[in-house]
Amino acid sequence: MAIRLITDVKSSDLNIKKIFKSDSCETLLFKLKKGEEIPNHVTQKKALLIMHKGKVVFHINTTDIELISGNTYEIPKDEVHNVKARADAIFFIVR
Question: What structural domains and CATH numbers belong to the chain?
């Protein structure tokens, strides 16, 4: 799937799509509208967040990390975290 096709996805709701899965990893596409939030949760294995477009605040422990287009962030396993969109955002999680 070309990234330009992914960016054309339109939705007023939280939009998460699994775009790749193998025995060893998967890639998820997230689209958040400004103000939407992925509530507190934990991942059971390390993951990589790759920002494609927009701006989010990634909250982990007591730290807020602002991520914008082109940024990446390694999400540790077993840590409670959440994500809130400060602008319409598209990002990928590889785990």
Answer: 24-94 (2.60.120.10)
